[in-house]
Design a protein that fits this description.
Rossmann fold, 15 strands, 20% strand, binds nicotinamide-adenine-dinucleotide
Length: 419
């Protein structure tokens, strides 16, 4: 049984020193945590990070798990979280995992089994619900001010110059160079689930294909498409539209229509501001028809204001620590984590099947886990067989020679020497 430090701090180890570095720095006494170890396969930067933070470093995950740790935070590659999470749970560690929770349906089933068997805390590190405007919209929703959830939209549109993308996607095999356009859907979906307490039940998806006239794409070693639209039927009957990824016109936007009103964060100006619209037909007028304001966080306002991703990052370590202390699974538990991750997988199936409908199973149900236990379907080109899909709607597309040469130049500048 894991013990804590003599001061009662949760001993934390972080895997992956890119995004993971932020988690590592935030694992502070204020959070009731103490960072004790880092793990990464990139030896040189790992050693520098370990020195900087004054903690042990490991290039081998199994040896890392032997360190005296209470909790592991996974910020390794997008498509490799579930196996590492299962291993950590089996080694009696609490786990917080970055997006995605799972890369296949089989992994989803195995991860839920592992959490239930271990009795440990599992948290899915979806930070977008904890942005200030999403926390406010959850508060409003639960006052009943907009009635019942009817329709929602979530957008995660994240363009950027080629040099930026190349610098964080080193190598042709890096997941950012091939991940299908439906898979990075949790930033768009999680806020809507959080605000309305609903779960996805079915999906249909369309993909906007790769374009060779995009000057960013023409400088990247990509094998995937620009963006996708996913429609999700929620378990309440509400419908949601998700839009994600490489389009021009950056924006993180959430809109919720209820039976008595509507709310969203602003598209223009300060996108942390909330617009609440209540047409109070056939009822006593209690508020102005439209209110636009900058909300507060319901808790931890000062500290959250200083954190990344609109304050959302602050609440990851905060809720993980709270869950471990109380022994109660966090809101973003394994069931919500796999449900929103599986939306990306089933949406890819839908996009490849002319937008037909695919189910999002309820993995609380053991029969659903059994049904998908052997479903290893996935678009990783490195695992490709005749039964597996390619990562683009256009099939097995390859970057042009010029694009690859340009990307390689940037990789070399960043110290990556591989192909
Ligand atoms: N929630 C957010 O806002 C947000 C933002 C950025 C990234 N992310 C997520 O964080 C994760 C990491 O992304 P990133 O931006 O750091 O880029 P990345 O995926 O390139 O970095 C992963 C890091 O993990 C290391 N790694 C990979 N496999 C490992 C293994 N088996 N053992 C030890 N180390 C290993 C790599 O060397 C690298 O340093 C991804 O899942 C990504 O989706 C989330």
């Amino acid at each position: 049984m894991a013990r804590r430090t003599s001061q009662g701090l949760i001993r934390v180890g972080v895997v992956g020193i890119g995004r993971g570095y932020g988690f590592a720095r935030a694992a502070s006494e204020r959070m009731g945590m103490k960072l004790v170890a880092l793990c990464d396969v990139r030896e040189e930067p790992l050693r520098a990070a370990g020195k900087d933070l004054g903690v042990a470093t490991y290039t081998d995950y199994e040896r890392f798990l032997e360190h005296e740790l209470d909790a592991v935070i996974l910020a390794n590659f997008f498509h490799e979280h579930a196996p590492l999470a299962v291993q950590a749970l089996a080694a009696d560690k609490h786990v917080m995992s970055e997006t995605a929770a799972c890369f296949t349906m089989s992994q989803a089933a195995a991860l839920v089994d592992a959490v239930e068997k271990s009795g440990k805390i599992y948290m899915f590190a979806e930070n977008y619900p904890y942005m200030i405007f999403n926390q406010e919209m959850r508060r409003i929703y639960h006052t009943g001010a907009i009635g019942q959830f009817v329709y929602g939209e979530g957008e995660y549109v994240h363009p950027g110059p080629a040099d930026f993308w190349n610098s964080i996607s080193p190598g042709l095999a890096h997941w950012r160079n091939w991940l299908p356009a439906t898979y990075y859907c949790t930033h768009a979906l999680a806020p809507l689930m959080f605000i309305t307490d609903t779960m996805p039940s079915k999906v249909n998806a369309c993909v906007m294909p790769y374009r060779d006239d995009d000057p960013v794409g023409a400088r990247r070693a990509v094998r995937n498409d620009a963006a996708s639209v996913i429609t999700v039927r929620m378990d309440s009957g509400a419908v949601v539209k998700l839009l994600q990824y490489h389009l021009r016109g950056e924006g993180i936007w959430v809109r919720v229509h209820g039976s008595r009103g509507q709310m969203e964060n602003l598209r223009q100006g300060d996108s942390n501001m909330v617009r609440l619209r209540r047409e109070q037909y056939h009822e006593k007028i209690t508020t102005p028809r439209e209110q636009i304001y900058l909300p507060n966080w319901p808790a931890e306002h000062q500290a959250a204001a200083a954190a990344g991703h609109g304050g959302g990052d602050y609440f990851m370590n905060y809720h993980f620590s709270q869950a471990i202390r109380t022994g109660k699974q966090p809101y973003l538990d394994v069931y919500r984590g796999v449900a929103m991750s599986v939306v990306g997988i089933q949406a890819w199936r839908s996009a490849l099947a002319d937008s037909n409908t695919f189910e999002i199973p309820d993995f609380h149900d053991k029969a659903a886990r059994k049904k998908y236990a052997k479903d290893h379907w996935n678009p990783d080109p490195a695992q490709h067989t005749k039964d597996m899909p390619w990562p683009s709607i256009l099939g097995n597309i390859k970057p042009s020679k010029a694009a690859l040469a340009y990307a390689k130049k940037v990789w070399r500048k960043c110290g990556y020497t591989g192909e």
